[in-house]
Amino acid sequence: MKVNIDESWKKELHSEFEKEYFKKLVNFVKQEYQQYTCYPKGKDIFSAFDYCSFDDLKVVILGQDPYHGVDQANGLCFSVKDHIAMPPSLINIFKEIENDVEKPFPKTGNLERWAKQGVLLLNATLTVRAHQAGSHQNKGWEKFTDTVISKISEDKENVVFLLWGGFAKKKKAKIDASKHHILTSGHPSPLSANRGYWFGNKHFSKTNAFLKEKGLQPIEW
């Protein structure tokens, strides 16, 4: 696995790639991809960074693990490849967008269009073994992505962080709330959404209201 990542991120993270934990992580991932089917494809592991440069970043959405079903994951959290059926959490995200900003339900669950507008769709763990949720957790990815969150917090300002569910909310401690805008809610998964913790959070209109207030281009959700 080459650390083939957008140049703007290389400047921010180059020292991380030299650390011992990251070298061990690279070796682990290489072995896993050689021995098992893993997702996303090798070329897509750093897609979240390639589609959304550090300079253009305006919004961060945090996920936990890539999808582990056949051909679902494309390197962006909550996103699936074109022509792949939308998972339940993604359907609930689009339902909230429909209600919140009156944007019609899309034909595809591929969120590359968000990433190109400055939305970093970051999973805490960037790889997974097929059909084994959480199989690449606690191998070093979380340390790397925690550093990413801290770097954004330190080196940028007026970024909107959307923290959905208990796991994402824990990352709040790494974000300087005096410089950034943090929105939290329940997770869009059916378990949480059906209990009333997701629908009506209006995170998409709130994000755009904040961006406009700061003179930034709102996101076309």
Helix-strand topology string = HHEHEHHEEHEHEHH
Radius of gyration, in Å, reads: 17 Å
Order of strands in the sheet with the most strands? 3-2-5-6
- Main sheet properties: 4 strands, parallel
How widely separated are the two ends?
Answer: 32 Å
- Average pLDDT over all residues: 96
SSE class: alpha/beta
**Percentage of residues in strands:** 5-15%
Number of helices: 9
What does this structure look like?
The chain has 221 residues and is an alpha/beta fold. The strands form 2 sheets. A 4-stranded parallel beta sheet has the order 3-2-5-6. A two-stranded antiparallel ribbon has the order 1-4. The radius of gyration is 17 Å and the shape is globular. It holds the Pfam family UDG. Belongs to the uracil-DNA glycosylase (UDG) superfamily. UNG family. InterPro entries: UDG_fam1 (IPR002043), Ura-DNA_Glyclase_AS (IPR018085), Uracil-DNA_glycosylase-like (IPR005122), Uracil-DNA_glycosylase-like_sf (IPR036895). GO terms for molecular function: uracil DNA N-glycosylase activity.
